Amino acid sequence: MGKLRIAIAFGLALVSFGAIVWCTVAARPVAGPAPPRGITAPNPWAAAAGRADPVARWAREATTEVMVTRASERDLAAVPQGRLDPRQRQVKVTVFHWLKLTPEDPLIGALRQGGGFPHSLAQAVDSVFGAIKVDGPALGPTTRLAPALVSDAGHTTAKFTVTLLRQVKMDELLKLDFGPPTAADPLIVPDRSIAVLPGEWTVLRLEGITPDRELAERLEFAVGGYPVSMTLAPDSYGFADVVEADDFSWATALGVLTALALLAYLLRSLGKGWWQRPPNRELVIGLALAAPTLLIPLVAKDWVAVTYVVLFVAVPALTLRHAGRVLPTSPPWTTRDLLVVTGLGVVVGLGMLSWSWLHGQLSGQALLAGGAVAAVAAAGSAIAFSVDLGVRAVIVRLSVLSAEAAIGLLALALWLRALLTGVYPPDSIRLVLALGWAVIPIAAVAVATKQWQRSAVVAAVLVSLLVQGWPTEWLDSGSWSLAVSRPEPMIGNLVLDPIVRGVLGLLLMGFVMLVLRLRRLGGRLAAIDNPVVESTMITVLMVLYITPGGSTTLADIDVPLPLLAITSLVAWATARWLLTGPRPAIAEPATYEEHRRLVRAALHKRLLLVSEQELYRIGRNRIGAGDMSMADFDERRQTLEAALREHGRHPETAFATAAGCTPWHNGVAAFTVSLLLSLPFALVYGWPEGVDLTSFVFDGRYLVTLPAFGFLFGYFYPRVRGTQPMTKALHLTAAALLTELSGYLSTLVEPDIGPFDKAQVVGIVVGQVMMVCVGLGLFWEWRIMHLAGEPWARVRTLRSVRSLAAPALAIVLAAGTTAATSAAGQTVDRILKGDQVSTAPK
After folding, report:
1. Where are the alpha helices (DSSP H) in 175-311?
2. Which UniProt keywords apply (predicted)?
3. Domain-located, residue 174
4. CB 540 within 8 A of CB 521
5. For the residues of 333-369, what is the DSSP string, one character each?
6. Closest to 549 (Cα-Cα) out of 219, 86, 113
7. What secondary structure does DSSP assign to 18-75, as a single string?
8. Which of 605, 636, 652 is the last residue of a domain?
């Protein structure tokens, strides 16, 4: 009986597998997206042009006017934000075509009938006037307005409007090519008159053109059935007689120095113990071998599939293996977890099966029959295999799991069949890549937390999907229909294809891992003296201040690479300065109760010191007036000195301790307060934008740079220069202000920017830094007193002008910042937001 059951189980498994194979073999190739109708539609002018007599043909007049202007915000409103590069010119080329016809010309009837408009509009216009091409990356598709007809007793004029948006570098030339009419035999219009209004450009070269009228703001010429071209140069750019190659570049030198410092601190942040573990060394070797494959898309596009396999298959497998070797226990996944995962897979699979039905890969009956047979047979096979266990719950779960696996396998097989034929849902590839890439953060979080967590798996999958695009991009109406050709979004010169997004996601995940390392190491107070922790903190700070801003040439290919800003180096130097200053010996409290005793002793000592000063102040007058004898004065003085000797003459350091809290706890508190104080200034710099998670996070770095300094302040508070919260905050102000202003050095020395604009920029930066740092110092003073159970008024009273000096200064600077912000012009706006106003070295 047992052998019969096994035979039945294997037979049902083969039936299920056979149903999947049958559906895959029977699937038909899906027809690709229909080509634009303008390509196949008949030319609406051809028949009418052939019927026209020679008199009507020679009476036609074709006039073209080309206007080159700067693209406005309204023109760029529909352009994806990631495609716009503020360091380049956005050019709008508007082309107006006028075709003047006599009343008896049959072209008028053809034009009014519209033969295939708007799909054949481009073909119709090019057949009469010829195509006009503009060099440079397109910011969007060419747009055409509907033809406008104006008729009177003598003639009819048709007006066609074409708009092109281009993006060119600041020193790049703009070339306009005027192609011949596509209706070559015979020409619909024998001669064409063309006028070019260059605007902010100057005509540099003419090819095949003899001008009829040549002015600075207008160039007119006539052309027949042959191509011509012209080249424009920007008015605001001068060409050097001799281009000298710089033997030394500060940008390159600073970039190399920053990269070396960052690499040194990164290696140091891992610590010797980390390198001594074999699994860690294997991971580094594996990643080092995988890294060169990321350059394959730059040098050999035919082998780009290797990069995809390495990044989305090999690297996830490597990290998963590393996590399995490092973690002490296996993943605690249960059958319920497996059912949930396969259930989600079935949901995605049903989407694929729906696509197969809607686009005719398989008929509805075939899909229902094949899916039902595969699922039922798989469930029956699971029941036959597990029936001898005698546990109903296990049998049911295995049968459901098998049915779900069969449906998922069917969907996967049909997807692979569609992939082989080249027609598939476009976002299905990104979905598979995202799910493969999600294994990396799952393993990384497990290693960082030393345990496998279901919540980490869910979060990693969501983050992986966001790395490959925002929900608006995933839910686009065309994402799950048919693959169509559309440009990828860009950040500067960087095309955000799945590979680039995956690499940027890895960099973002590496940064998060450094922060998690600070959390793990910051659970004990001794961490603030650990060189590994200090190196990790400086690495995080340097990464936040790295600013990409250019490209380099690698193997004759223009490769976008970060030209590392000086701010990263300054952040390194100022952080080291903050943490390496002289500091007195501090008795750190281990508990809140010890902290409370230290603060109360410090308050008592302050009271004695103030009393001693008061005794000398009033004693001078009272002794002189005879109200106090010298004996009384000496008695009181000796009593105070005895009390002071009892408390010790060394400086009190109760306000320079960690207050019984861990470094991580203090760092998070300081970061939160600094972030809240920084948020109002987002109105000055603008809210971050991006086409996916990594670009959004990168664009929002300015929101967390100052809070990162606040995090350093709280994390290493006992080591920061100074002995009181406000003195430490003033040292923090100096460090943060120097770092923030260093990013505007090249702009502040730019002679083309007025001193008032420069003063406004400095005022805004100084106001923000003072507001954050002084506010953080006041909060820390309150926090220390609050943790000690003492009122804040005992160290800072609102009735004292001296106590209000620091907050008053912060408020005045914040008010000045607000005024400067409200009066800031376009130049200040571009400086703060990193536009091309700054003169970056070429």
Report:
1. 250-275, 278-290, 296-299, 304-309
2. Membrane, Transmembrane, Transmembrane helix
3. yes
4. no
5. --HHHHHHHHHHHHHHHHHHHHHHHHTTSS-HHHHHH
6. 86
7. HHHHHHHHHPPPPP-PPPPHHHHSPPTTHHHHHHS-HHHHHH-EEEEEEEEEEPPTTT
8. 652
Considering the entire predicted model, what is its pTM?
0.68
Strands (E), 400-499: 490-491, 494-495
pLDDT tens digits, residue range 775-825? 898 899 888 888 888 887 777 665 555 555 556 565 666 555 555 554 455
Torsion sign over Cα 398, 399, 402, 403? negative
Q: How many CB atoms lie within 10 A of CB 720?
A: 24
Q: Which of 746, 708, 718 is nearest to 840 (CA)?
A: 746
Q: Retrieve residue 229's tokens.
A: 């071209």
Q: How far apart are the first and last CA of the chain?
A: 82
Which amino acid is present at 434?
Answer: A
119 CB-side CA count, 13 A: 11
Each residue of 681-731: pLDDT tens digit?
777 666 777 777 887 887 777 788 899 999 999 999 889 988 888 889 989
Q: What is the tens place of the pLDDT at every residue in 490-502?
A: 665 667 788 888 8
Task: Give dist(CA 750, CA 761) in Å, integer.
Answer: 13
Mention every residue, 6+ apart, whose C-beta is less than 8 A from residue 411.
348, 349, 350, 352, 353
Indicate whether 86 belongs to any domain: yes
Q: Are 651 and 584 contacting, i.e. CB atoms less than 8 angstroms apart?
A: yes
Give CA torsion, residues 604, 608, 613, 616, to 10 deg: 160
154: buried, middle or exposed (CB in 10 Å: 19+, 13-18, 0-12)? exposed
Query: Which residue range is the domain that position 608 belongs to?
Result: 587-652
* Residue 591 belongs to some domain of the structure: yes
Query: Domain tally for the chain?
Result: 2
Q: How far does Cα 306 stand from its chain's mean position? A: 26
Question: In the structure encoding, which two tokens stand for residue 182, read together?
Answer: 């596509």
Burial of 297 by CB count in 10 Å (0-12 exposed, 13-18 middle, 19+ buried)?
A: middle
Last residue of a domain, one of 626, 652, 678: 652
CA 429 from chain centre, in angstroms, equals 21
Half-sphere exposure of 418 toward its Cβ, with a 13 Å CA cutoff? 28
DSSP 652: P
Q: Quick one: which of 188, 226, 161, 153 has its CA closest to 60?
A: 188
Distances (CA, A) of 672 to 109, 526, 703, 767: 71, 23, 12, 19
Closest by alpha carbon to 729, among 645, 622, 655?
Answer: 655
C-alpha distances out from residue 52 to 45, 104, 110, 371, Å? 11, 9, 12, 62
Q: Report yes or no on 407 lying in a domain.
A: no
Backbone angles phi, psi at 196, to 5 degrees: -120, 125
